[in-house]
Specification:
The complex is a heterodimer.
Chain A (H helix, E strand, L loop, with lengths): L2 H4 L2 H18 L4 H15 L6 H8 L3 H19 L2 H13 L3 H19 L2 H18 L4 H17 L5 H8 L9 H19 L1 H10 L6 H10 L10 H15 L9 H10 L10 H32 L1 H10 L3 H15 L4 H15 L5 H13 L9 H10 L4 H24 L5
Helix pairs in contact in A: 2-3, 3-16, 4-16, 5-15, 5-16, 6-7, 6-8, 7-8, 7-9, 7-11, 7-12, 8-9, 8-21, 9-11, 9-20, 9-21, 9-22, 10-19, 10-20, 11-20, 11-22, 14-15, 17-19, 18-19, 18-20, 18-22, 19-20, 20-22
Chain B lengths: L3 H32 L14 E5 L15 E6 L2 E9 L7 H13 L1 E10 L19 E5 L5 E5 L16 E3 L6 E3 L6 H4 L8 H15 L4 E8 L8 E4 L4 H13 L5 E4 L8 H8 L3 E8 L12 H6 L3 H8 L14 H22 L6 E3 L4 H7 L8
Parallel strand pairs in B: 3-4, 3-9, 9-12, 10-11
Antiparallel strand pairs in B: 1-2, 2-4, 4-13, 5-6, 7-8, 10-12
The chains are: A mainly alpha, B alpha/beta.
Chain lengths: 431, 382
């Protein structure tokens, strides 16, 4: 890298990243605030003053995404409040406890489901993760492994179809519609979800199954009875059915189904929870949902500001073209390392800032397959401190205080995930 | 009464709220300037002979809507063909807009008719895209020392006029599925729908104009990013291909390298495809090279819009990532406007060779070299 190329954009990059790290670590500011401070300092040192209009414009970059996350969280809290999630989990454990492989796969699918619907790993961890945790622990899965399994399954859920926000962001960068991603995203995620489940969950469940259904684990039976206090009936499943009809109808029959948009679809599905005959407090559910969604929404606002100032100052161009300048073999290493590392800001930010240029660098291969694989690798950013949305929430839910213990367990599956993503990129045209 | 320990948080919360109100007021003032930019911004001074109309004269459904836009018509003394020129289909492609204004302020039609809509999608001129960091305006100084300022907008209609977009957009005429955002893109909305979304209604208005004015040749002026394959190019509907080929050769003779691309038959909603398919018009879209809208661009601002100089693109060119001969190429807006103006002039002149009695003669237009050497300001009126 020459001095002419580095100066001044490389310097601005270092300052912005440095200020972010300082504000975040040394001054213990929330990630969103640290990002905003870094953006303001970046604008100041590049001679742009404090460009309020640019900062606010950037902050609105993820408005639609934020609306989706908040509304999806309201839906998930509703499903939690009416007892559907616990009831479904209890049914699954009772039905498959003696079949540890199926139970492992069932729990993994359950963990992935909220992420698949909402496109948010945090949503998956905070809903399905929270509900499955006691069962996993009761069935003998060590807490650190349980947290890692929840975090990774949530990330695979976030990446799996039908909703994958990083893939939408990456595709949008080259005017590629989010159409035809279903199969590639399943190929990206399903093998990894099976591998991770088998690695982290299956051994403990197998041991537990050896005790048998009529075994002496009375505490588990009490726990399952508590979880299944609400009967799993079609009426109880109404919110899910409404959501499937509204989202699925729009995608499968776009000519006749109304286009409500995801936020409204989630809200209507949540409202149908009032018809399930269960006693629950909608205000309480909505308040919990907004509280849970606010940190993520804040981070997206901060990321939006940060990227706007990166663009204004030329840092984005510097970053993008520097990444493109990597030799071919190093390009793959760059993708496998820089995408997750940049995810320290957020997986979405990583998808925007690096995912798009990497896709441009790989133009000529099947863009949908490459975009899918890049979104998978970008998703790993949700394990990366300081934000580590999926990882930190998972550790919190399971009760592990030191997140780095969880991160250590995540390391092997994360490396396998990155390698699988790179393999898919290399073989993109074989699909 | 509140406990003492809550006072600090109430105080800081009040301060933060006041701060938020102040920031909202400052940014709102800035964004409202895009909606009400003042009389000097986007001002045009049409050459004598142009008659001012509105698109709603052709489709009344647009009247009193934000989609209605100015249309100018000049008729020569001799009868001939009719040429329609659209600028500003995408408001973030400045050379297309400015070329239409240069045509409007300089064209002296001797034969046939010239119709110009310089700001085709006004709803795209009232906002810029988040994270693109584009300037709100750019400008030129005229020979008389007057600053002429134009808005730099966005590719699509402002969400204020059309929100939210669906997840998937179904092109009404063909049933083709596209990303939801394309519903707000005028160049995916043709031939339009009379009772559709605002952008679809706008497209419908232009289709009515083409039909009612019996347009022979319709040209849509655009710009593209240097990393995209269709740059410095004419894109022609198959019935316009002969005319476009003739002009391509003439442009090459004049030292203006240009590509000729056929209009893809399976990509629907684009002007050159739908105008050509639905009417008798010869439909052509033109692209010049605009670094300020590119993904690889470096420092973003008015300077980049006007000069096209960018070290990030210099580096990308070294890496072989571009579709234009970047190092030897003039990137200034004057050159890009010159390409558009010269191409329009040549297409008009050659029209009679492919369509009987449809000749169009336009005088007073600046030559490519004159625009390139003297700059755009020299050909804008005070």
């Amino acid at each position: 890298m020459t001095v002419e190329w580095f100066w001044p954009e490389g310097f601005y990059t270092l300052v912005m990243v440095g200020v972010f790290a300082l504000a975040s670590f040394a001054f213990r500011q929330p990630i969103a605030v640290a990002l905003a401070i870094a953006a303001i300092v970046g604008a100041l040192i590049s001679g742009n003053g404090v460009p309020v209009d640019h900062l606010i414009e950037g902050a609105f970059g993820y408005l639609d995404t934020i609306l989706i996350i908040v509304c999806a969280m309201i839906f998930m809290k509703t499903v939690q409040h009416i007892g559907l999630m616990e009831s479904a989990a209890a049914w699954m454990i009772r039905r498959f406890r003696v079949l540890p492989f199926r139970l492992t796969m069932g729990i993994t699918a359950l963990l992935m489901l909220p992420g698949m619907i909402t496109g948010s790993s945090s949503a998956a961890v905070l809903t399905a993760g929270a509900i499955v945790t006691p069962t996993l622990l009761r069935l003998g899965v060590p807490p650190v492994k349980a947290a890692a399994a929840i975090a990774l399954a949530a990330i695979y859920g976030m990446t799996a179809p039908p909703i994958n926000i990083p893939a939408m962001i990456i595709g949008g960068g080259i005017d590629m519609p989010y159409v035809g991603f279903g199969i590639p995203l399943l190929i990206c995620t399903v093998p990894l979800a099976i591998f991770t489940g088998m690695l982290l969950v299956y051994p403990s469940l197998k041991q537990s199954a050896a005790i048998g259904p009529g075994g002496e684990d009375k505490e588990l039976e009490v726990e399952l009875d508590r979880m299944a206090r609400v009967r799993l009936t079609p009426r109880l499943m109404l919110p899910f059915l409404v959501l499937v009809v509204l989202l699925g109808g729009e995608r499968l029959f776009p000519q006749i189904a109304p286009s409500l948009g995801m936020p409204l679809a989630f809200l209507l599905a949540a409202a149908s929870g009032l018809l399930t005959g269960q006693k629950w407090n909608p205000m309480e559910a909505a308040t919990e949902a907004v509280q849970a969604a606010l940190p993520v929404a804040g981070i997206l606002v901060g990321v939006g500001m940060f990227i706007q100032i990166m663009t204004l100052t030329g840092v984005r161009g510097f970053f993008v073209v520097s990444a493109l300048a990597l030799p071919a073999w190093l390009l793959y290493v760059g993708i496998a390392t820089s995408l997750p590392l940049f995810g320290a800001v957020s997986a979405y930010g990583s998808a925007t800032v690096l995912g798009v240029p990497f896709l441009l660098a790989l133009l000529g291969r099947d863009e949908i397959v490459v975009g899918s694989a890049l979104s998978l690798i970008a998703g790993l950013g949700d394990l990366m401190p300081p934000t580590a949305l999926a990882g930190l929430f998972a550790a919190q839910v399971v009760g592990v205080k030191n997140y780095f213990k969880v991160l250590k367990v995540c390391l092997l599956p994360a490396v396998v995930t990155a390698a699988w993503g790179i393999l898919i990129i290399i073989g993109a045209d074989w699909f | 009464m509140f406990e003492k320990r809550y006072l600090a948080s109430r105080f800081s919360a009040t301060l933060l709220l006041l701060g938020a109100v102040a920031v909202a007021a400052i940014s709102a003032h800035s964004y409202l300037r895009m909606h009400h930019p003042g009389p000097d911004v986007d001002r045009v001074v049409p050459r004598e002979g142009f008659v001012h109309k509105r698109l709603s004269d052709y489709f009344q459904g647009l009247q009193d809507t934000p989609a209605d836009t100015d249309v100018y018509v000049q008729e020569g003394e001799q009868p001939g063909g009719t040429l329609l020129v659209l600028g500003g289909t995408h408001a973030n492609e400045p050379a297309g807009v400015v070329a239409a204004v240069v045509l409007l302020e300089n064209a002296d039609v001797k034969r046939g008719r010239l119709i110009i809509a310089p700001y085709a999608n006004l709803m795209a001129r009232t906002h810029t895209f988040p994270q693109d960091a584009h300037p709100q305006t750019f400008g030129f100084e005229t020979s008389g020392g007057v600053r002429r300022t134009f808005r730099y907008g966005a590719r699509t209609t402002n969400p204020v006029n059309e929100w939210p977009n669906p997840d998937i957009y179904i092109h009404p005429a063909s049933g083709q599925t596209m990303a939801g955002v394309e519903r707000s893109n005028l160049n995916r909305a043709h031939p339009g729908v009379a009772d559709g979304g605002m952008t679809e209604q706008l497209a419908y208005g232009f289709m009515q104009l083409i039909k009612q004015e019996d347009v022979d040749l319709a040209i849509d002026l655009h710009e593209a990013s240097p990393e995209y394959p269709v740059v410095d190019a004419l894109v022609a509907h198959e019935r316009a291909m002969e005319l476009a080929a003739m002009v391509t050769m003439e442009l090459e003779f004049e030292g203006i390298p240009i590509r000729l691309e056929p209009s893809p038959k399976n990509l629907r909603g684009l002007s050159h495809r739908e105008w050509g398919d639905q009417t008798d018009v010869l439909a052509i879209l033109m692209e010049t090279c605009n670094a300020s809208a590119g993904r690889f661009r470096g420092r973003t601002g008015e300077a980049l819009v006007l000069t096209g100089e960018d070290k990030a693109y210099d580096k990308a060119a070294e890496l072989g990532r571009l579709y234009v001969p970047w190092e030897s190429w003039d990137k200034r807006i004057a050159e890009r406007v010159g390409r558009h103006v010269t191409s329009v002039k040549l297409l008009a002149e050659n029209l009679e060779f492919v369509r009987d009695d449809a000749g169009i003669v336009i005088e007073g237009l600046p030559a490519y070299t004159s625009l390139s050497e003297e700059g755009v300001g020299a050909y804008l009126r005070d």
